[in-house]
Amino acid sequence: MRLEISFRNTDPTDKEKAALTARVERKIRKITRFLRDPIEVSLVLYAQKLGYRGELQVAGAGDDTFVAGVEAEDPIAAIDGLIHTVERAARRRHDRRLSKEKRLVRPVEGSFTGASPAPSAGAGFDLDEDEDIDLETEEISKALHELPA
């Protein structure tokens, strides 16, 4: 994973940069399970008159690219909002991809022979398919006639 964090209109100290970088790395790990490697993360944090604005771009292999923008009063809230937005979008795309794959799965030819399952070992008798249906029908009709009206 390649992480790039830049600041605009502000000059954070090295301690603040390290803390924000550690926070972003820790929180981005949630998103990486939904993306394929290599993953590139770009975060830009803008200082404004009344707060901060953040832009986050997360790109995985293939067409997995997510972009988010959030405004907040402090940089931590902006970063958390960005990561939450991208995580939700990545999870949604991942779930859609999985459900699409499940819909597209077809049974393999020859895996279902169409034969009836083998009789259980404790049955003690073998019935043909027609006899089994007739037996069930007779039992149901007996039970219906025995019911009090």
Give a verbal description of the structure:
The protein is an alpha+beta fold. It has a domain at 2-103: 2-Layer Sandwich (Double Stranded RNA Binding Domain). 45% of the residues lie in helices and 22% in strands. The protein has three helices and four strands. The chain has helices at residues 14-32, 75-104, 129-146; strands spanning 2-8, 40-48, 51-59, 65-72. Helix 1 (14-32) packs parallel to helix 2 (75-104).
Short description:
With 149 residues, the chain is an alpha+beta fold. It is 45% helix and 22% strand.
What is the overall shape? elongated
CATH architecture of the domain at 2-103: 2-Layer Sandwich
Order of helices and strands: EHEEEHH
Q: Unreliable stretches, pLDDT < 50, 5 or more residues?
A: none
Helix content bin: 40-55%
How far apart lie the N and C ends?
Answer: 75 Å
Number of helices: 3
CATH superfamily of the domain at 2-103: Ribosome hibernation promotion factor-like
β-strand number: 4
Structural class: alpha+beta
